[in-house]
Every structure is written in C-alpha cells, then in structure tokens.
C-alpha cells in the first residue's frame, strides 16, 4: 500500500473513531507498527494529527462526504452499476449512507422503484425522479457526512421493509466481519439489515481489510458481496462458510 493511501486511511480512522493505538492501526492496514509510527510522525509534521502515548488523535470530525466521494470513483461506479442491475422494477431498495450508495442511486434513474434511505445525497439525487417512490428516514443530521442517524432513524426502519439492502462499509475483516469507523452509524446499519430480505455489501478492493473499530455484522447476515477485485483467501473462506455469494463488478456471479 502506498504511503499516501495509508495516510488517508489513518486520518479517516482517527476522524471517525477518536484516538487509535499504533497496534490497532497496524492490524487494520496490514503493515508493521514501525511503518505506522513513521506515518504518524509525518502526519504530525504536516499538522494533521497529534501523537499521544501509543497512538494518535485528531481534533476534527468525520472526513467530509465531498472528500470521500472523490476517491476511487471508477471502482465505486463499476460496483454500483453491477448492483443496480440486480434490482427488478417494482421492488423496494434500501440504500445505506456512503459514496458507493450514492453512485448506485445514479444508476436507478428511470426505474419504477421504491427507494428508502438515510443518505441525504441519495435523496437529492433522486428527488426529481417521478418514477421513484422516495422514502427519507428521519433522524439527527450528520452534516459533514450527509446522513441521518439516531433512534428516530432506527424506529422508522422498524416500520419498513425492503426487498434489497445495499450496505456500505469501511472495512471487512478476514473473518468476514463488516466494520465501520463511526460508532453512531452502527445501530442504523443493523436496523437496515433487519428490515431487508436480501443484504448486499458494496465493498471495493480498498475495504479488504480497510478500517473500522466497530462491528456491524458477521458474514452470516450477508447474502452477497459486490466488489471490483479478488478477495483475499482468508476472507473468501469465511464468506464461503457463511454461504455468501460474491459478485464481481463487470462480470457474472461466482460462488465463493
């Protein structure tokens, strides 16, 4: 992994999850603790974080949606296009927060669907499409990441049902666990899973293993994973044991 990419992932983890230990960052990024320490020194020199005993911290909030949306656009769009092709007209679709879900929404224009979301950018994308019944979940607004969270969002989800959930993630562990960097999003994601018939994880190559300190769910809660690159053997084995189907963007379905 290039140093610039590591630095982005370190800052994302710190912005979303608070202070992080060198050992945790080392495990998440799959590099040595010594490499992480060098990265933290460089990022501190650049004024982007403050090193503390055993790790580092940043004072900022989440990485803004607009910044994340500019990363790996082609990969996200390929995944989104493949995922959108799974949905039949007349079905209901639940879209998670995140930039890949936004890319997916762009592929739903002109369809006859019901779309349920807590993603404000998805809402803005589809608001003028009269063929789509659009349901915006209530909740507290996370302005920087353009999403709705909290008990109101979760309560709304308990009253709804969707044929499909397209779920985002910040990382997938070798055991198949779906992770997130922002604790406040986890209960909403779990409520989305409970409200859906089929759960599809959208995860580009950078999400294996990616980042995240909070577990959203295990592989047993997934029906499919849509990705743009081969999955590492350990994760593939975990998904296979759970009966999860892997769909490669730009290709047909393949059983793990």
Could you say how many structural domains there are in total? 2
Give the quaternary arrangement of the chains.
Answer: single chain
Q: Taking strands numbered 1, 2, ... along the chain, how are they ordered across the largest sheet?
A: 6-5-4-9-12-14-15-16
Number of strands: 16
Beta percentage is 15-25%
What's the overall geometry? Answer: globular
GO molecular function: DNA binding; DNA-binding transcription factor activity
Keywords: DNA-binding, Transcription, Transcription regulation
Pfam families: DeoRC, HTH_DeoR
Protein name: ArsR family transcriptional regulator
Structure description:
This is ArsR family transcriptional regulator. InterPro entries: ArsR-like_HTH (IPR011991), Carb_Metab_HTH_regulators (IPR050313), DeoR-like_C (IPR014036), DeoR_HTH (IPR001034), NagB/RpiA_transferase-like (IPR037171), Tscrpt_reg_HTH_DeoR_CS (IPR018356), Tscrpt_reg_HTH_GntR (IPR000524), WH-like_DNA-bd_sf (IPR036388). GO terms for molecular function: DNA binding; DNA-binding transcription factor activity. Pfam families: DeoRC, HTH_DeoR. Keywords: DNA-binding, Transcription, Transcription regulation. The chain is an alpha/beta fold and 256 residues long. It folds into two domains: 58 residues, Arc Repressor Mutant, subunit A (Orthogonal Bundle), CATH 1.10.10; 182 residues, Rossmann fold, CATH 3.40.50. Helix content is 36%, strand content 24%. It has ten helices and 16 strands. The strands form four sheets. It has an eight-stranded mixed sheet, with helices on both faces. A three-stranded antiparallel sheet has the order 1-3-2. It has a three-stranded antiparallel sheet with strand order 10-11-13, covered by helices on one side. Strand 15 and strand 16 form a beta hairpin. Helix 5 crosses helix 6. The radius of gyration is 18 Å and the shape is globular. It starts with a helix and ends with a strand. The C terminus is likely disordered.
């Amino acid at each position: 992994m290039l140093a610039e990419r590591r630095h982005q992932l370190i800052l994302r983890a710190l912005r979303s999850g608070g202070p992080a230990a060198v050992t945790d960052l080392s495990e998440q990024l799959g590099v040595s603790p010594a490499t992480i320490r060098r990265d933290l020194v460089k990022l501190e020199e650049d004024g982007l974080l403050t090193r503390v005993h055993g790790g580092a911290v940043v004072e900022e909030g989440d990485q803004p949606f607009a910044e994340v949306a500019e990363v790996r656009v082609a990969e996200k769009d390929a995944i989104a296009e493949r995922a959108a092709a799974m949905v039949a007209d007349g079905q209901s679709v639940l879209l998670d927060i995140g930039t890949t879900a936004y890319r997916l929404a762009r592929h739903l224009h002109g369809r006859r669907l019901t779309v349920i979301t807590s993603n404000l950018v998805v809402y803005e994308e589809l608001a003028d499409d009269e063929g789509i019944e659009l349901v915006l979940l209530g909740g507290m607004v996370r302005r920087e990441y353009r999403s709705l969270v909290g008990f109101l969002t979760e309560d709304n989800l308990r009253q709804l049902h969707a044929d499909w959930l397209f779920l985002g993630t910040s990382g997938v562990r070798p055991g198949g666990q779906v992770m997130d960097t922002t604790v406040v999003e986890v209960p909403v994601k779990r409520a989305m899973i409970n409200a859906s018939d089929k759960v599809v994880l959208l995860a580009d190559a950078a999400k294996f293993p990616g980042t995240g300190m909070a577990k959203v769910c295990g592989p047993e809660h997934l029906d499919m994973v849509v990705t743009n690159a081969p999955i590492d053997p350990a994760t593939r084995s975990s998904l296979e044991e759970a009966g999860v189907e892997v769909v490669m963007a730009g290709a047909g379905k393949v059983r793990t």
